[in-house]
Amino acid sequence: MPLRICILETDILRPELIDQYQGYGKMFEQLFAKQPIEAQFSVYNVVEGNYPPAGERFDAYLVTGSKADSFGDDPWIQTLRTYLLERFENGDKLLGVCFGHQLLALLLGGRTERATQGWGVGTHAYRIAEQPAWMSPALDQLTLLISHQDQVTQLPENATLIASSDFCPNAAYAIGDQVLCFQGHPEFIHDYSRALLDIRQQFLGEEIYGKGVASLDKQHQGATVAEWMMRFVAQGRDAA
To answer: Domain named Glutamine amidotransferase: which ranges (predicted)?
Structure first.
């Protein structure tokens, strides 16, 4: 049977990007279509208050990236926190990317805040700290597209560090076989990253913007991370 994945979409794209890219839910569906483990996806935009019907079960819940701060007090973020804690306490598997990575760390005992390192943009490389069996195919180094000014500055006490860099020490982590999170964006493609950079050029400043654009010449391994995520979920289901 295909894995059933609930995508909790935590953003609405900027108007100038919606026609081409639609939303993060669609980006993840396109990404996961390229990996070998069969899965079905249901997307719910939690900013608009949409959640799965009560009683509907999924093999995992994926929390997307967002322009919002994970430590913000917006009503929809408060509602999402309550929902995710319920899912965690129920034993459900949780996947987080960028905002989702930060929010889950915060909820489960870690710390997330505005990073003193400033904005991270473009393509970024990480060292692999641990390589569990579900991280197949194995990599010596992980490269992902990024766009963030917040970071997880302290992992939850029971978390295992998966990937790190000098710029982003807590770039990926797992908690047992239940939680798996990445700061980078496996669902991004180079054109979308360039569009975000262009929109934020004046805000970022020429140095950060220029380095970000130049880094887009490098390939990224989002498809590999997608496979890792599905193997992480499938391994847990197969063992149940």
So the answer is: 83-191
